[in-house]
Design a protein that fits this description.
- The chain folds into two domains: 320 residues, no CATH class; 107 residues, Immunoglobulin-like.
- By secondary structure, it is an alpha/beta fold.
- A hairpin with a 5-residue loop joins strand 6 and strand 7.
- The protein is 59% helix and 10% strand.
- The relative contact order is 0.13.
- Strands 2, 4, 6, 7 and 8 form a five-stranded mixed beta sheet that branches. A three-stranded antiparallel beta sheet has the order 1-3-5, with no helix packed on it.
């Protein structure tokens, strides 16, 4: 069936289906993301600082807004200096703004010291100390200690999951976009279809890994505690955890859209190709927005301009990455009839994507990240121009030009490998740059200490 013979009702259903998928992606994002509430501020401690009490059953810290107890840490030392609190604090029933820890069963007369800490929206520790006396005050022997350094193993694991999720996103979005924009029949080309499916599953698994490791990363505990139900509950109750959960939810309509593209008709017009490509970018933009909500940000949430710049940059990177990858897949095993159709379109599309990335990167990136992205631009544009030259040579020699195909395949393979290196370099430099900007580097987190009357 030719594009001109495609039944209009079928085309209308395809357009409507993709519009519904894009709307579902953005609707899921908006429904899953809570309004930023800002960083919590301590308003009271019970027993209060310096208060003389008989024998309290628990210590309570009350804040001006709900706090995820699973990510908080509360330590207490007895009059003899022994640490007497084990485990994580809890939110009492009906008091999401309060942290509570139980007093030890055996209580001695003297002064008890309390220290607490919880992560801010920038993942800096918000911390404070207090003390109270049971029966009679004494001089504190030891102040509770709370870890301020992150476990290097937790940092490496959490960062690896984040980087792998970003790589899966750019690869999946890029390959899907390039196929629907330049070669719609390619979605049924087995290697390309498998790559899209693997990217989706990798994104799901790495997001789950990010969620599991985030609790230990934010609460500064060991990797062995990552599966603590309290930490997992605290992660999902935090703003960043909500962003990661929203990513998983948005992946559901994304999967439905991929199924529609992979199983829909491939004999489409140029206008339909452009619409499909725009639909891919529209759904991907909702998915990319979860990156801004699931990383350290200002208490009021990520700024709209910053979020928009991040979406534009990741989309530009993704569409640029897809070209060399698809070209390499085609040159590995596609027949000559496929190459005659797909390679010229790819050769025209790749320089455009590279120039788009250059424009976006010049306005949003800086430092080593910009250098890595400029290398990526050069690779994408150069590979596209080489593909165009090869197709012209084939036309001139009136043959298959197998040696030229081998050379172009090697160039595409080198470009694909170098693209991976450039992406990692850009992501790592962006991670370090954002940590420094937010004061959240692993080795020197700034502490935010709260002060209220009677609390020191």
């Amino acid at each position: 069936m030719t594009p001109a013979c495609t039944p209009p009702p079928a085309l209308a259903r395809g357009v409507l289906g993709l519009l519904i998928v894009v709307a579902a992606c953005w609707g899921t994002l908006l429904a899953a993301m809570p309004m930023p509430g800002g960083d919590p501020v301590l308003v009271s401690v019970s027993p209060g600082a310096g208060e003389l009490v008989k024998s309290p059953d628990e210590v309570r810290l009350t804040f001006d807004r709900p706090v995820p107890a699973g990510l908080a840490t509360v330590r207490m030392t007895s009059p003899s200096g022994e640490q007497v609190v084990a485990g994580r604090p809890r939110n009492p029933a009906g008091a999401a703004d309060t942290l509570a820890v139980a007093m030890p069963p055996t209580r001695y007369a003297g002064t008890y010291s309390v220290a607490w800490s919880l992560p801010s929206s920038r993942l800096e520790p918000i911390s404070g100390t207090s003390s109270f006396a049971v029966f009679a005050p004494t001089t504190p022997v030891r102040v509770p200690e709370i870890a301020t350094e992150r476990d290097p193993v937790v940092t490496v694991v959490h960062t690896a999951f984040r980087l792998a999720a970003t790589a899966a996103l750019t690869l999946g979005v890029g390959v899907t976009f390039v196929l629907v924009a330049a070669w719609p029949a390619g979605v049924r080309y087995a290697p390309a279809g498998r790559l899209i499916k693997y990217a989706w599953w990798t994104l799901v698994l790495t997001t789950l890994g990010t969620i599991v490791s985030f609790g230990a990363y934010a609460a500064r505990t060991s990797l062995g505690e990552a599966f603590d139900p309290a930490l997992l509950s605290g992660t999902l109750g935090s703003d960043i955890g909500a962003g990661l959960l929203a990513r998983l939810l948005v992946l559901v309509p994304v999967a439905l859209g991929l199924v529609q593209l992979l199983t829909g008709p491939s004999d489409v017009t140029a206008a339909q190709r452009r619409f499909r490509a725009a639909a891919v970018l529209g759904g991907a933009a909702a998915l990319i927005a979860t990156w801004g909500f699931s990383r350290p940000h200002d208490p009021e949430g990520p700024a709209p301009l910053v979020l928009g710049a991040e979406i534009a940059l990741l989309l530009a990177v993704a569409v640029s990455v897809g070209g060399p990858v698809v070209l390499w897949l085609l040159l590995r095993g596609a027949g000559d009839s496929v190459l005659r159709v797909a390679v010229p379109r790819l050769a025209r599309l790749m320089p455009v994507c590279g120039l788009l990335l250059l424009t976006v990167a010049a306005g949003t990136a800086g430092g080593w990240q910009l250098v890595a992205l400029l290398v990526l631009v050069a690779l994408v544009v150069g590979t596209g121009l080489a593909g165009r030259r090869w197709m012209r040579r084939r036309a001139d020699v009136r043959g298959l030009d197998l040696p030229g195909r081998v050379r172009l395949r090697r160039l595409a393979a080198v470009a694909t490998g170098a693209v991976a290196v450039a992406l990692v370099a850009a992501a790592v430099s962006d991670t370090g740059r954002s940590q420094l900007a937010l004061g959240g580097s692993t080795g020197g987190d700034q502490q935010i200490r709260t002060h209220v009357p009677g609390v020191r």
